[in-house]
């Protein structure tokens, strides 16, 4: 490994953060479910890859009604995947390897097994226990006609005309953020993990939390039409949610270095800087590249807009192509533009057929583009292997609540959550021990080709490309500026401080290389050795003299 890792209070500004979805990363105890000991054991993979930090999706006690985003207790580890002692050992090992740790905080809702929710149900209407959640009385049907994120109504009946609000699954009751207990308890949770050495927090659905259901409430149709005024929506992206984050910032700043936070805030772009401000969470996810087609105009516009937005908040942008909620980008790029991913998954990935070679070519080109941008790069486990989506999981094995709640019309997110292949053979491709139980979601036979072991043995593999790209990035990374340069039609070229030039050819024919020494190529040998032109659908990094 070369170059210093990000350090100091600003370590996150241009960090490469690797998302671990713990139940599908590595299974040390052989029960078919990934665990914390598995993560600790696989730290060498992260070090060899060259990332700066790990973002760990929820590992808290949970019935897994929503893959762990239904949290029974925010200050403990799910006994199915480890213990607090194993958590501490993992933090120590990550830090010893020079890696930071960001954990997921899920503040909009708890699970329905949380002691406070159980107490609320037991205590009955009008009780102080019920005040911590959002209960409403409505004798004739749900209080509103709102649709929950995974389908079905947002209100669940509990008898006698009482209902509770859940923006996601019924097993995820929404907290009442007007309640001081809820505010205090979350700050206690942040301190609990910060005290254990956690370096930062990823804030789940940061745009929800605060609510005002007192006024006349809009219908689902009005919400979808976008006619509800910004900032005063009954539950979404309310101005007053930032009071919560200003208060959290005071907690983060009590630590040295201050703890970082990144908001998952799915809001109109111009509202994003509020979440990323230094008085608030400090950084906000931008999913615009993930949502863009492989298209030069779209990529360039997304970069220009997001660099401006991040600057206006005094923050840096975040770049994402895949995560645990989305069809993997190698598969997205393998499909004709405009393909409905929902329909494609329902057809088990047969209509249309994916052009896998094209998907992988574009995915690597987009990754090299992303890794050359100023700001933080968030990588999702398995993308360093070029892993495609497992599109043909049968309905009976699906775990995502979307499948059931949509009555089998939307498959959901399991296809990107299939446990990783570490070795090319064995019952779970090295995800668990040889004598362990099968992985909790079935791995297809073709996973063998994408195994870490197989790719380590291949100098032209996607893994070799990611390792080379991250090592080069560390050597080349300097200031946060970016300047677009003139380029032929269909090619986007930009320069970073120190003469680091990134050129992406979105067309299918080769174009001349930019001048300078090629130091990375997304196609062929990652070093770019012998490259005489910039092939179609590929990216190079070039180092310009002086
Ligand atoms: C976020 C998570 C997603 C989860 C949802 C509810 O969007 O990324 O996985 O289902 O929040 O917590």
From TrEMBL:
<dbReference type="InterPro" id="IPR045857">
    <property type="entry name" value="O16G_dom_2"/>
</dbReference>
<dbReference type="GO" id="GO:0016787">
    <property type="term" value="F:hydrolase activity"/>
</dbReference>
<feature type="domain" description="Glycosyl hydrolase family 13 catalytic">
    <location>
        <begin position="19"/>
        <end position="417"/>
    </location>
</feature>
<comment type="similarity">
    <text>Belongs to the glycosyl hydrolase 13 family.</text>
</comment>
<protein>
    <submittedName>
        <fullName>Glycoside hydrolase family 13 protein</fullName>
    </submittedName>
</protein>
<dbReference type="Pfam" id="PF00128">
    <property type="entry name" value="Alpha-amylase"/>
</dbReference>
<dbReference type="InterPro" id="IPR006047">
    <property type="entry name" value="GH13_cat_dom"/>
</dbReference>
<keyword id="KW-0378">Hydrolase</keyword>
<dbReference type="InterPro" id="IPR017853">
    <property type="entry name" value="GH"/>
</dbReference>
């Amino acid at each position: 490994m070369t170059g210093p890792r990000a350090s100091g209070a600003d370590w996150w500004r241009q960090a490469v953060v690797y998302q671990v979805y713990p139940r599908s990363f590595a299974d040390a105890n052989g029960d078919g479910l990934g665990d914390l000991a598995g993560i600790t054991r696989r730290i060498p993979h992260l070090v060899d890859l060259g990332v700066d930090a790990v973002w760990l999706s929820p590992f808290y006690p949970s019935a897994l009604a929503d893959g762990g985003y239904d949290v029974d207790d925010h200050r403990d580890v799910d006994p199915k995947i480890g213990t607090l002692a194993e958590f501490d050992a993992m933090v120590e090992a990550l830090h010893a390897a020079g890696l930071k740790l960001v954990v997921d905080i899920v503040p909009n809702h708890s699970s329905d097994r949380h002691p406070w929710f159980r107490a609320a149900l037991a205590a009955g209407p009008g009780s102080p226990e019920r005040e911590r959640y959002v209960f409403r009385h409505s004798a004739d049907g749900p209080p509103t006609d709102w649709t929950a994120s995974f389908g079905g109504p947002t209100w669940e009946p509990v008898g006698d005309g009482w209902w509770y609000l859940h923006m996601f699954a019924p097993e995820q009751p929404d907290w009442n953020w007007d309640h001081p207990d809820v505010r205090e308890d979350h700050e206690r949770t942040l301190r609990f993990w910060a005290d254990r050495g956690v370096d930062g927090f990823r804030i789940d659905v940061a745009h929800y939390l605060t609510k005002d259901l007192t006024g006349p409430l809009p219908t689902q149709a009005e919400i979808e039409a976008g006619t509800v005024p910004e900032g005063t929506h009954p539950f979404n992206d309310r101005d007053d949610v930032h009071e919560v984050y200003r208060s959290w910032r005071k907690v983060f700043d009590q630590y040295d270095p201050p703890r970082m936070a990144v908001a998952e805030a799915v809001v109109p772009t111009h509202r994003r800087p509020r979440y990323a401000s230094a008085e608030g969470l400090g950084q906000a996810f931008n999913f615009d590249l993930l949502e863009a087609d492989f298209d030069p105009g779209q990529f360039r516009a997304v970069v220009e807009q997001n660099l401006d937005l991040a600057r206006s908040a005094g923050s840096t942008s975040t770049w994402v192509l895949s995560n645990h909620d989305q069809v993997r980008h190698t598969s997205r790029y393998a499909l004709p533009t405009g393909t409905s991913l929902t329909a494609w998954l329902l057809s088990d990935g047969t209509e249309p057929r994916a052009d896998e070679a094209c998907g992988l070519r574009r995915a690597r080109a987009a990754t090299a583009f992303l890794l050359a941008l100023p700001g933080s790069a968030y990588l999702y486990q398995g993308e360093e292997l070029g892993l495609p989506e497992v599109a043909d999981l049968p309905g009976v094995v699906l775990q995502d609540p979307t499948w059931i709640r949509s009555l089998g019309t939307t498959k959901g997110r399991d296809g990107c959550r299939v446990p990783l292949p570490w070795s090319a053979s064995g019952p779970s491709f090295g995800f668990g021990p040889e004598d362990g139980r099968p992985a909790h979601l079935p791995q297809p036979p073709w996973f063998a080709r994408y195994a870490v072991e197989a790719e380590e043995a291949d100098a032209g593999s996607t893994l070799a490309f990611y390792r080379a790209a991250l090592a080069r990035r560390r050597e080349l990374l300097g200031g946060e500026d970016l300047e677009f340069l003139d380029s032929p039609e269909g090619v986007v070229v930009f320069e970073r401080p120190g003469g680091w030039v990134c050129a992406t050819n979105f067309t299918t024919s080769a174009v001349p290389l930019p001048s300078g020494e090629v130091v990375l190529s997304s196609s062929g040998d990652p070093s770019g050795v012998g490259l005489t032109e910039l092939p179609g659908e590929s990216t190079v990094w070039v180092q310009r003299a002086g």
